[in-house]
Input
Amino acid sequence: MPDSGGSRAQREHIPTSGTRPGAETDMAGPTPHGDAGALSVDPGAPQVTAPAGLPAAPGAGGLKAARRTGFLVTMVLGGLTALPPLSMDMYLPALPAVTDSLSAPAATIQLTLTACLAGMALGQLVVGPMSDRWGRRRPLLLGMVVYVIATAICALAPSAELLIGFRLLQGLAGAAGIVIARAVVRDLYDGVEMARFFSTLMLISGVAPIIAPLIGGQVMRFTDWRGIFVVLTGVGIVLTLVVWKWLHETLEPGSRHTGGVGEALRTMRGLLADRVFTGYMVTGGLAFAVLFAYISASPFVVQEIYGASPQTFSLLFGLNSIGLIAVGQINGKLLVGRISLDKVLGFGLAVIVLAAVALLLMTTGVFGEVGLVPVAAGLFVLMSAMGVAMPNTNAQALMRTKHAAGSASALLGTSSFLIGAIASPLVGIAGEDTAVPMAVVQVVCAVAAVGCFLGLCRPWQRAGREAGGL
Output
């Protein structure tokens, strides 16, 4: 379903100070609402159209304005995508304290995590179509305001039941940041530039899971678990103000859908009917399931089975996250634009499969008794390869959906969360004395991701038809 036609500036007769490479392959669609004109930028850097009021004069002034705009957009969207992992992971060190404070069983308090995760998954299905109908700003600002209110009530919750309910609402509202950030990227960027931007977003949002537990632990030194929600409320307020002031509308009224729920459902059905879009969506979801299996099982595997201390586990977790971020930056800065996205994606999936198979062989004893170092090395390789798999599946899927970026973003996010949520409990199915279930889940999901990529996306059929090797 990809659109075709001239560049946005050519179609809308907007004066430009330069045409970026590959503009002739842009998706059809009018200039985003509030644009003052396309700005010339370094061909090697992502291009972003200028929000209202931003000077677009050619030359050095226009170039500096474009760079400032690109930096602002990057930081705002990065903050929005980092908020959900902050909401989840800052709270982890406080779980025992919440159990004691609210006099509730540990299993009940665990539902506060499940509720937040479920809210993030389901909220994207609601907010995505809303953003296609009413634009990006209004649903995002509404979601941020509800997030702030729900988080503040979590800080005051007198019972576990109320905390669970408002954690669900917090997740539903926080989903607006995830889905609309992805849709804004699709509004502003095309082709390899979109893939580069997703890699940059991964740098920002990838730091959040690393520092969130550390921040939560430090907050617990000075206050109780309610203080964590107070901090998250403050972060939400700041992000809401930043969005209100600096994130301009990127979807003009003429490009919005005017129908109701029925049209939204028809749009999603049409997206799912696109075999290639669905292929990238499921491939990305299965790769995300490999990541979820690691997150769910690694604390137990590393500390209980291989005897590492919590400090060693934290170090290994941080190193793996750094590997994912570093490879994501290599993808965005060096590979995208030089090598076909499908080739890079295929290579990343192959590395994930090989690393998962190696972990399975090690955990089943094929190589004899192995220590922590080989297992940690396998996990590092597997996690690092996610740095090319995840941004490129998103970019390739969204490049086909200019007409419904919000709905497409919702399907991408929801499928990843749901597939990951289904896979993650399976890692403990055989009890506490073996890491084999983690490796089995990772191998099955990785092989299935490769199968979906080859069977549904069929990159070799499109290589000769799509400009730039995309």
